[in-house]
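Lecture 7, part 2: worked example. A protein chain together with MUC.
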Amino acid sequence: MKTPITITKVESFIIDLPTIRPHKLSMTTMQKQSMVIIKLYSSDGLVGIGEATTIGGLSYGEESPEGIKLTIDKYLAPALINIDATNIQSAMTQLSKIAKGNRLSKSAIETALFDAQGKRLNVSMATLLGGAVTDTLPVLWTLASGKTEQDIDEAEKLLAIKRHNTFKLKIGSREPAVDIAHVSAIKKALGNRAKVTVDVNQAWSESTAKTGIAALQDAGVDLIEQPIVKENHRGLARLREKFIVPIMADEAVATPEDAFDLACLGAADVFALKIAKSGGPMAVLKVAAIGEAAGIALYGGTLLEGSIGSIASAQAFSTLRSLEWGTELFGPLLLTDDIVANPPEFSNYQLKLPSGPGLGLELDMDKLKHYQRRE
Ligand code: MUC
Ligand code: MG
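Predicted complex, written out as structure tokens:
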């Protein structure tokens, strides 16, 4: 009988990497990104890597970097030891039995299992997920310095070097009138040369959203992301009824169950897909399938992961037939350095998928050790 290939060890590290400038969202201003990176070892000597990253400690979501590391070390890793490293579905089912929720942590594990299995079979992670239909993905950039003139300058530079031609603006922390003036000034400066989208990150009440979206629609904004609290699916449906500008669900659509409810209610024109939010690449493709079946357009989202999480997302998104709104997988470009030896390439408004097996990335252990948090 063939000796089974089993999982022998899982290591996790918290990495703190500074951002190139403050990144201002409705709930926090980021000066650094804290990523949980894992290494998953198997009995055949292969090591898979994965990433679980959130934004602003506990201010954005329900899992913090410290909590993710604890969850992996104390609960998920012990449940994986000695089980079949080549059966990803079975390993993830095992994790779903011993841990509720904790989807960011699970996404890192699933990514590492795919990375190792891809290396084992000498195929990309996308191939394991059914096959890539493209090797490049369009990528937008988020303007979030908090200053209108600086954001316009940043957009002009990125347009000039053809790195991005769609810009997402983060609003919601200031008075709506101030935010609307900010967005209108940027849209006016960029004109038809760029698409402009806004992400309110749940900051508005439904009544503020009614007046706010009306003004943003008049200003020529192309897409409105998560204007109200994520739990208010019916409110999103009411807003969608009212406006022509498309409404995108982000925080509201994490699991396939969320996707099903939003689809039944007609509450979104677009779904923002994120592997971490859904609990891994396989779960995010289920969300995408529900969107496709309901005629909801798709968008490849990020939790501002570094290269590992961004490329894991890209591997999954590259298997989708249509990503009408492109992606926002620019996370590595927001950071001052990288912990992989072959950082992803961005040019001509696109992210290029690496060509190697698994994720196609090589961890730089010296860099990882340099940025590792020691406590
Ligand atoms: C979010 O809510 O969309 C994605 C891009 C960005 O700047 O922030 C994130 C989070
Ligand atoms: Mg968002």
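The radius of gyration is 20 Å. The mean pLDDT is 97. Keep this in mind for problem set question 3.
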